[in-house]
Design goal:
The chain is of the alpha+beta class and 156 residues long. It has helices spanning 7-10, 15-46, 95-106, 111-122, 128-137, 139-146, and strands at residues 55-65, 68-77.
Length: 156
């Protein structure tokens, strides 16, 4: 890393983005292996003589993460029964991304301020309606965080 900036590591096209992509894809591949194995066991227990379900390529999906947008190759199966757990079908944001929005909202930032902050830091356009939908979905959690007991002393 000598002679390189932090952008080479943490930027939108940095190595951290590639590492995130590789880890998520490997985890989803493992999920597919488990899914296919479970289906084979079910078929053998039921005595079905069908051809077993197997991998059928992949589809691309863009997911918003803490480090920006990452394009993932999501594995598919022939029967279309694979439902990933790490990043579920139709999910476009990594779970940590939602928590960060809730945290900023709970600290008193407006939806427009959060939108500007996310675009500035992550390079991702998040509409005010998306931010509102996320905060509305977890409003009980936000209220609980705002009403939590404070520590007696905070180091500065």
């Amino acid at each position: 890393m000598e002679g390189r900036s932090a952008g080479h590591l943490f930027g939108k096209t940095g190595i951290l983005s590639d590492l995130t992509k590789a880890l998520v894809e490997r985890a989803q591949s493992a999920e597919m292996d488990v899914h296919l194995g479970e289906e084979r066991v079910e078929q053998s227990l039921e005595g079905q003589n069908q051809s077993p379900n197997r991998r059928n390529g992949s589809s691309q999906k863009t997911v918003t993460t803490e480090i920006g947008a990452v394009v993932l190759d999501i594995p598919c199966d022939r029967n279309g029964t694979f439902d990933p757990l790490l990043i579920a079908k139709y999910q476009r944001r990594f779970p940590e991304f939602d928590r960060k929005i809730v945290s900023m909202y709970a600290r008193g930032m407006t939806t427009r301020e959060i939108q500007g902050h996310i675009e500035e830091i992550y390079g991702v356009e998040a509409s005010p309606s998306l931010i509102s939908a996320i905060t509305d979905a977890v409003m009980d959690e936000v209220t609980a965080w705002q009403n939590r007991p404070l520590e007696p002393c905070y180091p500065v």
